[in-house]
DNA sequence: AACGTGACAGCAAGCGCTTTCTATGCAAGA
DNA sequence: TCTTGCATAGAAAGCGCTTGCTGTCACGTT
């Protein structure tokens, strides 16, 4: 039924071993023979059997990319960058790898299951993107899996996620969320704001915590009181930003600025403010985080912290492919850049 | 080194066959035996060898999802929906499948290579999303691949892509881009617009052509002259929308409306108009397509055609998993819904 | 009491490839 | 001329799992 290596071998009048070697190009084969084999491959329209190959060679050409939410451009952009370096089709011939992105939807179980599935497939590498979940049990389970993967020869890279002390072999490209958060709030304080609302992401994520810590550090450093009622937690989506803003306004109508967990949330915040009859930044300034492509198009354009998602993703991809040296110590911090735009200004009054 | 089925079998004092059957649950095993096996699996921390399993069973648990641009929420949303139905971890136990999304970046070669890679992995199913490329040679090559995949037992589903006559076994869930485009332009004509600019996507994509055809059909039906100079082609991104709008304005400053190939492009158009000192919709109306999440947050909110991306994706996913009957004839058309919002209004003057 | 008859469990033959080791041929060195 | 050595090609032993087929019991039947 299906064409196998043996069929090709028969047609090319060589042994299966030779065909295999031609295909893998890691053993000398006389060019006349090679040609004959290649022709046979072509004529028979032969496609290698991946599982068989992986089984025999004890490695596969799968590279897993785990993302929290594939519908979120934050992850989409990173995933695209990673995948472009994985080579998939892009890379030089022979190095063809299947870069596959797996959407955990932010669920711990799915994260673990995908990791197991990838382990089962004997993936060549795994890249985990975005913030981690701060549940000790879960973090431990993930770390254990990562260790297992590493032992099995799978390269593990974290992109935009803090290093995992329990899985020291994982290379980590971490975003400086704390520093970014701090810069952002300092910018606002510098403009004169003293009553700042903060819309944080889900409680149990490292990204959420770090950005919030940065915010608080800034408040603290400048002697601005940090009223806990001015912080609201939500999800990383627009809806959440909308609702949280209304809640913040309810709690303190005298707010002059709203700092959001990310750009998407900030957009929701803008909508809520507008629907409440408030001007941006005339009445209330708004700041986001990430600098996703649409942020510059918001009206007014969003002040935010630009994270080099593409660059970081590309680097993570290269490291995963073993094409770039990991950073010393296996850990690198990627900084964000404050982008001051129209959505922030001096406070009213 | 690594734990194998045989190790588990030894530990549980049964034959490898029994362990396999416990794991696959497709053959009666006494519950006491099953328990013993499961315990051994647990104690040894055994993880099935995917390639070996796929080789022996001649099937794999991979499901491929091809997207044109994973950084674009249009695809991200569909991919998320598809993957959620693939089950990956979400599905009922045993049906665990690895839903992997592959980013073609709109490149024909990559599309083909991914298809081959998936074929090589003996994927259980493949879902192709978004518009196809209208190059005869390429379309033929893709169709041939799809046929091969089908023959090999891989289910093939197209989501948001027109049916492929040359690959009649592929189930197609098509978006009614033509109808949507027509509705949109009719809405504008109904408001009184007569000089409409159109920013089309890349020339060689079905999506581009269909939306444009809808636009032209509307013009034609209402006796509005279709000046070819009012149509500009570009990419499906913001930048392109920005530049195309400036170009359209240059060609005809008296334009009263701009119809964009999609929401992202529309956002770029809005920016260009604003930068040109024009009000939306006071001076120029703008319309998009897709109704991505950010469109409602644009200022003014974008008039657009809502495509049920999640629903269509979910359905495609279920069909790919064989959990839902394909539509009669293997083809279904998914309609869009016109969403009239603030970015369109009666023309000035 | 002899005999089906299920319900399980095991044997063993692959699945299609990679790779080690071995054979062969031929050119060059002694 | 005979040996060495290099460049290739082939033989064959797996890789770890699935599954058709063959037992083996313990029962229920007649």
Query: N-to-C terminal Cα separation of chain A, in Å?
Result: 80 Å
User: Strand pairing plus helix content of chain A: what structural class?
Assistant: alpha/beta
Largest interface: A-B, 65 and 66 residues
Strand content of chain A: 5-15%
Average pLDDT rating of chain A: 94
Shape of chain A: elongated
Q: Flag low-confidence runs of chain A.
A: 88-94
Radius of gyration of chain A, whole Å? 25 Å
Give the neighbour order of strands across the main sheet of chain A. 2-1-3-4-5-11
According to DSSP, the number of beta strands of chain A is 12
SSE series of chain A? HHHHEHEHEHEEHEHEHEHEEHEE
Short description:
The structure is a homodimer of 349-residue chains. Chain A has 349 residues and is an alpha/beta fold.
Describe the protein.
The structure is a homodimer of 349-residue chains. The first copy, chain A, is α/β, with parallel strands linked by helices. In chain A, 44% of the residues lie in helices and 15% in strands. In chain A, the strands form three sheets. A six-stranded parallel beta sheet of chain A has the order 2-1-3-4-5-11, with helices on both faces. In chain A, strands 7-6-8-9 form a four-stranded parallel beta sheet, with helices on both faces. In chain A, β6, α9 and β7 form a beta-alpha-beta unit. In chain A, α1 crosses α2, α5 runs parallel beside α12 and α10 crosses α11. Chain A is elongated and about 90 Å long. Chain A starts with a helix and ends in a 10-residue tail after the last strand. The interface between A and B is large, with 65 and 66 residues. Chain A binds a DNA duplex (30 and 30 nucleotides) through α2 and α4.
């Amino acid at each position: 039924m299906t064409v196998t290596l043996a069929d090709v071998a028969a047609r090319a009048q060589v042994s299966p071993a030779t065909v295999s070697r031609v295909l893998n190009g890691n053993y000398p084969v006389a060019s006349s023979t090679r040609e004959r084999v290649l022709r046979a491959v072509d004529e028979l329209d032969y496609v290698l059997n991946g599982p068989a190959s992986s089984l025999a060679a004890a490695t596969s050409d799968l590279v897993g990319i785990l993302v929290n939410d594939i519908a979120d451009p934050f992850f989409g952009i990173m995933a695209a960058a990673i995948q472009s370096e994985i080579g998939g089709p892009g890379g030089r011939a022979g190095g063809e790898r299947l870069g596959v992105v797996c959407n955990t939807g932010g669920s711990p179980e799915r994260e673990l299951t995908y990791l197991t599935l990838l382990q089962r497939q004997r993936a060549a590498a795994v890249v985990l993107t975005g913030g981690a979940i701060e549940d000790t049990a879960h973090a431990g389970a993930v770390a254990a899996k990562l260790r297992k993967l590493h032992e099995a020869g799978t390269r593990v890279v974290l992109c935009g996620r803090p290093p995992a002390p329990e899985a020291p072999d994982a290379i980590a490209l971490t975003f400086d969320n704390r520093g970014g958060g701090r810069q952002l709030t300092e910018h606002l304080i510098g403009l004169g704001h003293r009553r700042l609302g903060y819309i944080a992401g889900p409680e149990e994520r490292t990204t959420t915590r770090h950005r919030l810590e940065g915010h608080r550090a800034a408040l603290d450093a400048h002697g601005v009181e940090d009223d806990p009622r001015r912080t609201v937690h939500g999800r990383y989506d627009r809806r959440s930003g909308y609702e949280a803003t209304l809640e913040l306004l309810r709690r303190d109508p005298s707010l002059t600025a709203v700092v959001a967990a990310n750009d998407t949330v900030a957009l929701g915040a803008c909508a809520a403010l507008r629907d409440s009859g408030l001007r941006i930044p005339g009445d209330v300034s708004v700041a986001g985080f990430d600098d996703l492509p649409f942020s510059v198009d918001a009206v007014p354009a969003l002040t935010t912290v630009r994270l080099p998602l593409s660059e970081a993703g590309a680097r993570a991809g290269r490291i995963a492919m073993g094409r770039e040296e990991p950073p010393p110590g296996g850990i690198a911090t990627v900084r964000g850049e404050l982008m001051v735009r129209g959505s922030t200004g001096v406070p009213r009054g």
